[in-house]
Amino acid sequence: MALIPIYWWNKEVHNFQISQKKFTKQPWANGVVLLGCVVLAMLLANLPFTKHVYHAFLETEFTMNIKSPGGTVDWVFPHGMTVEKFINDILMVIFFFTVGLEIKREVVCGELSSFKKAILPVIAAFGGVVFPALIYTIVNHGTLASSGWGIPTATDIAFAVGILSILGDKVPISLKVFLTALAIADDLIAILVVAFFYGGTIKLPLLFIALMVILFVALMKKLGEKRIAYYVVPAIVVWFLFYYSGIHATMTGVVIALLIPMDARYNKAKFHRRAGILYNGLVESESVHTNESFPNGPQRFYLRRLSSLTKKTIPPSYRLEHKLNPIVNFAIMPIFALANAGVEIPDLSYFNVFHIDPALGGVGLGIVLGLLLGKPIGITLASWLAIRFKVGEMPAKSTWPMLFAVACLGGIGFTMSIFVDTLSFAGEGIDPAVTQHLRDAGKIAVLMGSIASGVLGAVLINIVAKLQKNKK
């Protein structure tokens, strides 16, 4: 009788593990986890018994103090690093690295691999960046909030694709591919915006050394080096050089990702030849050691060699993307959300996005309008111009109402928008308290604009799909 509870407990654990695996494979799973982390962060930042601990933890110094023999501190390394900056400047490097790998894959052999495939979503992505930035600038021109124009220009692919997957076959596959390719192109534009407009004062000597290291890595790749370990040390060196040179350190991830080889160490012929030799050895080991259970000692040797062979036949960039995606989606991005979405709300004025201060501007109004209106209008208008002048082609089985409805999902900014918000509004002569107020208001507006865009897109897609179904 004592075994029965244990049996049922083991069965429940097994079923939980299976369901857990299924959950992480769902396209909407990442969005659900992120949303949960946003709610938790907001609670931690506002509950009386947690908010002080939450903010104090994020502001905790995260540096090494290197002292001289006399006991005085000679060097603090990395300078100015806190727990929050560690998340935004180091962990997010891995996020940008996977984004870089994804962009490279799509450009080489995916939806952006040819002019015909890439041109429409790329043009649409530019429209979806220009219009929100323009709306934000009109609202905040001449105010302290004007530097935040890059906040409403990004699209969060995890949430957008997650909503599309929930809507099922109401959206044509061609438009799902269109939105995915658009989000990837949007990520590339956002990376360039961060690199050129949200870095610090550039220190040219350090930047020059970083470029020399990057050229060395490019030469190493050109000479055929495909071992991942040889790219790790240069990546760390480039990170430190970027960090101290004024280029945002997360750009390291993108730069190194673009240099990771997409060619396997073994080609098809070499793989078949070596795999055949190893398989024959595996079969012979079984005939010699007939009394031993499988796998015996020699067979384990051949299986290990086969495992190594198959791993080396998969290009390094694909292996890294496959390994890092779960870590990024279910660890790094949730941690980023926990650290950055926790905005302390002293009063309800943060939610009044229609308020415009003569000096501070209307950061909330600019972001919400940029995401909710600027994104779909910019994406749709740019797509219409591209198709009108026969530069691009309308996605198969799609209509303009459905394309506009899907474009509304492009207004889900979230991760990248919050990231740009953390870099905005700082400058010489600006009170840090004002900077923090603008950033907090910006984060609230990003959440409001993203939720509103997601709801609007889902509702419009359902309405358009129903109308089109009734016409048939």
Q: What does the model show?
A:
This protein has 17 helices and two strands. With 472 residues, it is an all-alpha fold. It has two domains: 28-199 and 248-263 and 316-471, Up-down Bundle (Na+/H+ antiporter like fold), CATH 1.20.1530; 268-313, no CATH class. It has a two-stranded antiparallel sheet with strand order 1-2.
Summarize the structure.
With 472 residues, the chain is mainly alpha-helical. Helix content is 70%, strand content 2%. The protein has two domains: 28-199 and 248-263 and 316-471, Na+/H+ antiporter like fold (Up-down Bundle), CATH 1.20.1530.10; 268-313, no CATH class.
Per-chain topology:
Layout: H1 3-25, H2 29-46, H3 51-58, E1 64-67, E2 73-77, H4 83-109, H5 115-140, H6 157-167, H7 173-197, H8 204-222, H9 229-245, H10 251-259, H11 268-288, H12 297-313, H13 316-340, H14 363-388, H15 400-408, H16 414-423, H17 432-471
Antiparallel strand pairs: 1-2
Helix pairs in contact: 2-3, 2-13, 4-7, 4-10, 4-13, 5-7, 5-14, 6-7, 6-17, 8-9, 9-10, 11-12, 13-16, 14-15, 14-17, 15-17, 16-17
Following the backbone from N to C, one meets helices and strands in this order, namely HHHEEHHHHHHHHHHHHHH
Instruction: Report the top-level CATH class of the largest domain.
Output: Mainly Alpha
Global structural class: mainly alpha
Number of domains: 2
Q: Rg, please?
A: 26 Å
- Return the CATH architecture of the largest domain: Up-down Bundle
Number of helices, counting only DSSP H or I runs of 4 residues or more = 17
Strand content: under 5%
Overall, the morphology is globular
**Which residues sit in consecutive blocks of at least 5 with pLDDT less than 50?**
1-18
According to CATH, what is the topology of the largest domain?
Answer: Na+/H+ antiporter like fold
Spatial strand sequence of the major β-sheet: 1-2
Span between N and C termini? 62 Å
Helix content: over 70%
CATH superfamily of the largest domain: Na+/H+ antiporter like domain
Oligomerization status of the protein chains = single chain
Largest sheet: 2 strands, antiparallel
